Amino acid sequence: MATDVHRPVTAHAVRVEGLTRAFDGRAVIDDLRLDIAPGEFVALLGRSGCGKSTLLRILAGLDRDIQGTALVPRRRAVAFQAPRLMPWKKVWRNVLLGLPGRPERAVAERVLDEVGLGHRIGAWPKTLSGGEAQRASLARALVREPDLLLLDEPFGALDALTRIKAQRLVGEVWQRRGCAVLLVTHDVEEAVLLADRVLVMDGGRIAHEQRIDLDRPRGITDPRFAALRAGLLERLGVDTAAEAS
Ligand SMILES: Nc1ncnc2c1ncn2[C@@H]1O[C@H](COP(=O)(O)OP(=O)(O)OP(=O)(O)O)[C@@H](O)[C@H]1O
């Protein structure tokens, strides 16, 4: 029987059990189990098409055609690779979009300041740079004061420098807010840089998990960082021998 329960949990930020999602009779997610603790930062890796975004959409409540259980907090928010801003609304109105009541501009201002975008509060989305648009998208998620922040490759389209800044920002926001984060990424380095735990999805399940017990801030020059990165690359089936030679 299909169950679809989205209700607040306290001991876990996410509790998923026996989760299955099929498209046209093919199970993309297959009896998946996953727990995320409150305040935990989890990164999700896996080859293209393995079902990462599908899982994220289910946790966001955007896909309810599932079997099994997916328990998530009521306060959750999602940001995607594409910032998805409404072009006919100024930045601050985009941030407040969909919030209940009639929140004031000052509410948007606070959260835009938090992501370093306070100076663009009255701008039109089309005038923002890629990094700025991604910050606006993050602000729109944060204004919901989520207990669970779901990020689907939020830095994927950014250039290298902007990406590093955005990664740092997410790390800071997470430490300040104390919300749980599930970050879908293709970037192993990013996962080891930010997460408490890195999951590798394969065959519709969490096939491997790696705890990252490194102090923060983390540096790629730390030999333990390199070892963790190499181990995860191997799990993903990437041949690292070429890099070493
Ligand atoms: N609405 C849909 N209808 C049919 N098939 C779908 C649908 N959504 C996803 N799929 C299929 O499910 C599989 C998993 O897709 P998903 O987007 O979750 O993968 P992903 O791991 O996020 O991939 P990527 O890393 O490339 O973004 C793919 O084969 C995809 O074609």
UniProtKB/TrEMBL annotation:
Alphabetically, the GO molecular function entries are: ATP binding; ATP hydrolysis activity
Which spans of this chain does the record mark as coiled coil? Answer: none
Lineage top rank: taxon: Bacteria
UniProt keyword list: ATP-binding, Cell membrane, Membrane, Nucleotide-binding, Translocase, Transport
Q: Where is the ABC transporter domain?
A: 14-228
State the name under which the record lists this protein.
Sulfonate ABC transporter ATP-binding protein
